[in-house]
Amino acid sequence: MNLLEALVNSHEGHAILHGAHADCREAHANWCQGQVNSLSTHAIRSRGRISPRLHGTALPIMTPTPAAAFAASSRVIDAVRDASGFQGALLCTVPPVPPYLHSAMDGIDISRVKRIALIAWAAAAWSCTPADSALPNPPMALSGVVEGFYGPPWPHDDRLDVIRFMGRVGLDAYVYAPKDDPYHLARWREPYPASRLAELAEVGAVARESGVQAHYAISPGGSMVYSDSTEYVTLLAKLDAIIAVGFDRVALFLDDVSPELAHDADRAAFDDLAHAHATIINRLYEDLTARGVGLSVTPTTYTDAWGDAAYARQLGVLTNPAVPFYWTGTDVTSPTITAQDGERWTTLLSRRPLIWDNYPVNDFARWRLFLGPVRGRAADLGYSVSGLLSNPMNEAHASMIPLATLAAYARDPDGYDPDAALEDALTLLFDDTTASALPISEKRVSA
Predict the structure, then answer these.
(1) pLDDT band at 440 (very low <50, low <70, confident <90, very high)
(2) Which of 102, 209, 219, 357 makes an SS bond possible with 253, Cβ 3.0 to 4.6 Å?
(3) How far apart are CA 169 and CA 162, in angstroms?
(4) Can you tell me whether residue 42 is helix, strand or coil?
């Protein structure tokens, strides 16, 4: 049982959640009210698949938070320890405490409003490892596909085939985000034509039938005036139309945009890009939460390879910690991703990152097919990230081969054997004659 489950299952947790709405209203703490809703609904939806860690809580090692934070957070841990049923120790790396929780660090006695905020932050942001190394590594809390490549989007029928395939192999999240869909990016303000909206409705329906989450991504950052309220109204109306046809999660993409504020009105209204982005993200999170819809975000800095780490750090501090941030790893295409890499970004973002894995995507080398199995993903990676989504090739059906190996890794990181997973994928998808003729290259397998 993890911190979040322990909270909602403990006697004190019930009391907190039961009274938190009134307490938050009394304190005029809008963020707190939204977080209470998120905790209540997320705990139900997760069915035990989220962490910071398996089997409950114990006194953590906390870095780099100050001594006062250690004392106050330890009190929170004690409040849910009994409900976990686990007496073993966990070693936890804790990001810096966001400014809106600094007042909760003033002493060990924490008011109910401050405590619910603190526990919510801990559940979303802490990265912990069982002190007992014999415990098995956890499966990925979330695994799936983000159709996020450049070039022609998948044909509609191919997209449906992939979603059905995902349901067969146990990948549980599909994100619609093709860069060359003009209504996703360049023409984000415009509603979809009726025919395209009907196709998206079918995507949502097939995803539900297949047991796959349907996420719709929109990428307004290249032209949006963040300080213009009419722009935000346009964004929300666009998303409402998508939600109405069956998507229950939204992704806001703020990647591949200028690292500086582009509009005079925004430069007057915001301190910097992180301030502008956090304002939009927090507002959208509150509005989507009220609709029962989840939100994830691709920030402008999403890799170690380049970008502004100060932006990423500030965005994490300013943004509701319940919102996952995508991260591609140590590079845009990362040969390896370790739990230590994830822990560094957990500290940077004040939340565990959600991996956008740029394998087997081939939009940068359209002449190549990357058909090898997923490699280079650490067995203990699930401890420090909130999930892993693969950006596939422009060729939908060919992508099923490496995607099947991703499903095997996500399901059982400890037992994952890339070569065996590849054989299983070929057996699943092809007859022996076809499988033996496939031009599978192991020269590039996970970058």
Answers:
(1) low
(2) 219
(3) 11
(4) helix
Whole-number Cα distances in Å, 91 to 63, 129, 326: 11, 5, 24
Q: Which helix (H) or strand (E) holds 297?
A: strand 294-298
Judge residue 336's burial from the number of C-beta atoms within 10 Å of its C-beta, 0-12 exposed, 13-18 middle, 19 or more buried. middle
Task: Encode pLDDT of 10-62 as tens digits.
Answer: 444 444 444 444 444 444 344 344 444 443 333 322 222 223 332 222 222 22
| CB distance 169 to 427 below 8 Å | no
Tokens read off for 97: 């405490």
Q: How many CB atoms lie within 10 A of CB 429?
A: 16
Q: Where are the alpha helices (DSSP H) in 211-263?
A: 229-244
Query: If you count them, how many residues does the chain have?
Result: 447
Phi and psi, residue 88, nearest 5°: -70, 170
Residue 136 has pLDDT above 50, yes or no: yes
Residue whose structure tokens are 């507002």: 283
DSSP 142: S
Res. 445: pLDDT tops 90: no
Q: Single out the residue of 336, 339, 329 nearest to residue 418, CA to CA.
A: 336
Tokens of 40: 């209540």
pTM: 0.73
Q: Which amino acid is at 299?
A: P
Segment 308-321, tens digit of pLDDT: 999 999 999 899 98
The helix (run of H) or strand (run of E) holding residue 4 is helix 3-9
* Beta strands at 213-218 and 249-253: parallel, antiparallel or unpaired: parallel
Can you read off the two tokens belonging to residue 405?
Answer: 């190996």
pLDDT of amino acid 338: 93
Q: What is the pLDDT of residues 187-212, one digit of tens each?
A: 999 999 999 999 999 999 999 999 99
Q: Which residues contact 187 (CB under 8 A, 6 or more apart)?
A: none
Average confidence (pLDDT) over 91-102: 47
Residues marked active site are found at: 256
Q: Does a cis peptide bond (omega within 30 degrees of 0) precede residue 360?
A: yes
Distance of alpha carbon 403 from alpha carbon 145, whole angstroms: 8
Q: What is the dihedral sign for C-alpha 42, 43, 49, 51?
A: positive
Query: Hey, what are 118's tokens?
Result: 């603190």
Tokens of 129: 């490892």
